[in-house]
C-alpha cells in the first residue's frame, strides 16, 4: 500500500474517532447480513480475531475493527458513543491498552461483556435494552499489519425471542443498518448464505434501496459447503456475474464446519483452499473465492473509495463549518446571563437607532432595508405633510369665500355635501389592533360643508342676529364666532393627518425591529414592552392636535403677520376699484388712456353701513383665515408630527435605545432577551458540531 493511501486511511479513522461521521459522510466498509448469515466467520477470517460465534455478544452493537502498521504491537479498545447515547448517558471511559499476545477468545469475550455493561445492554428480561448503537472500536497496531478498517453491524432478525429481544430491538437493528449503508461513501458487504434463495434475503433489498445503481454493494456468499448437490451452478452464476446486478459482484468464502470450530486459523484457511480446489467450485474465478481473495478485494476497495472521496470529504468539512458558522451567526450571541442579554439588546437597539436616524435624515444609502419605501420615513411623512397642506387649502372651509367659492344660490336652498377627504378609517392598520383605541375619533359623516347659502348672505344673517342696543356696528364676539364656524373642519382634517402619520411610524417601528432582530420571540416580547410607551407618544401627539386646534379656533383672532394687513388693505381697495369700474367712464386722449369719472357719479357706489360692515367682515375673515390656516398647517406638521412623533426627546423613535436597555432590571432582561430552551440546545448542538468539524479540519490539514 502506498504511503499516501495509508495516510488517507489513517486520517479517515481519526475522523471516525472524532465522530465526524455524524456530520459528514466518510468512506467505510460496512458488514451487514442476517444473524445466521456467517458474518462472524467472515470477520474472523478477515481480521484473525477470535470472534465468538456462540455467545451472540458480538452482534449486540456495531464493532469497528481497525488495523494499523506501527513498530509497537498493541490493541486499543474504546467505545464511541452514538448521538442518542451521548445525550442520555455519562461518557464511557476508554478501555486500557491490551497486549496483542494476550488477545485470545477468552479475553475477547470479557471485553464484549464489559462493553455490553458499559453500553447499558442488560436484556429485555431485566427491563433493559438488548442492543446499543454505541460502537466498540478495536484498533490493532503492529509491524505486520496493513491499514484496514471495517464495521460489523448486528445481524437482521425478524421475530423477537421471548426474554431476549423485542419488536423494538428489531426496529433498532434495522435503523442502525440503514443509517450506515445510506452513507453514499460506504461500501456495503452484504453477507448471504449460499444455500438460501438470495431473493429472500432482506439485506439485498435494503442495499438496493440505498444503492439503486448497485455500484457500492459487494455480495459475500458463505456456507457453500451446505449447497445442495446440483444447485451449485446457481451460486457459480452469481460468482461469475451472470445473475448479479452488482457492479462489484460476489465473492464466496467457506466457513468452518461445526466440528472444526476449535481449529486454528491456518487450518481453516487450508481447508478452505482445498474446498475451492474441488469440483465444481474449482471453476470459479480465483479472485472471487476464498478469504484471501476477499481480503485483497476489500483492501483495494477501501483504498479506492478513500482516494475517490478524500477531497470531497475535505470540501464537505470546510462547507459544513461555514454553514454552521452562518447558523450560529443567525442565532446571535449566547443569552444566558444578564450581561449577555443586556449586550444583545444593546446591539439591537444601537442598530435600531442607526436606521431610525438615517430614515429621518433622509440618508438612505448603505443599508439594504431602504430599498423598501416604507423605511424611507422622511420621504413618507413629507409626502403626507404636502397632502395635508393641499387638503387644508381645498377642503377646510365650511363655506367658500366670494372670490373662490361657488356662485351664490337663492336663499333658502341651503344643502350639505360630503367632503372628499379620506376618513381616518382608510388609514387604519388592521395588523396593529392596539391602534384602534386612539384612531377611531373621526366619522366620515362628520365631513361636510355647506354648499347652499352664499357666505355674504350667511354673514349678513349672523350680523343681523347679533345686533344690540349699543352704537357699535359690530358685536366683538361675532368675528371669532364666524371664524369658528368657517374652520370647523380643521380638527378632523388635522387628526386624520396625524393618525396617518402614526400609522406609518407604527409600521416603520415594526419593520425596523424585524430588520435588526431575527429572533421572533425576542421581537414579540420586546414589542410588548415598548408598546405602552409608544402608544403614550401617539396620545401626546393627538392631544397636541386638540390643543393647537383649541388655541387657533377658540381663542382671540390674533396675528402679527403683516400679510394680514396687506391682504385686508388689498381686498378693500379691490372692492372699491371694482365698484368704480362698474360706473360709466370716458377715455382720455393721453398716452396712459386712464378712465375719467365724474365726481357726482362716484356717490352712487357708496353702500349702506350694514352692507359695508358685512363686506368688511368678509374681507377680515378671508384675510385672517389664510394667515391662520398657514399657521395651523405649520404648527401641526412641526409640533404634532415632527416634535411629538419624530424628533422630540420622547418620540416613538427615541424609546428603544441603549439607554432604555441599560435601565432594564434583570428580571425583564430575562423575560425579553432570554433564550428559549430550544435555541439554547440548538446553539450548543451547532457549537459542538463546529468544534468537531474544526478538529476534523486539523486532521485533514495535518
Automatic annotation (TrEMBL):
GO annotations of cellular component type: membrane; microtubule; mitochondrion
Coiled-coil zones: none
Endpoints of the signal sequence: none
Biased composition (Polar residues): 412-427
Annotated Dynamin-type G domain residues: 23-311
Pfam families (alphabetical): Dynamin_M, Dynamin_N
Top-level lineage group: Eukaryota
GO biological process: endocytosis; intracellular distribution of mitochondria; mitochondrial fission; peroxisome fission
InterPro entries xref list: Dynamin, Dynamin_GTPase, Dynamin_N, Dynamin_stalk, G_DYNAMIN_dom, GED_dom, P-loop_NTPase
GED domain boundaries: 614-702
Region span, Disordered: 398-434
Keywords: GTP-binding, Nucleotide-binding
Any one GO MF annotation of this record: GTP binding
PROSITE patterns attached to this UniProt entry: G_DYNAMIN_2, GED
Protein's name in the database: GED domain-containing protein
Organism the protein comes from: Aplosporella prunicola CBS 121167
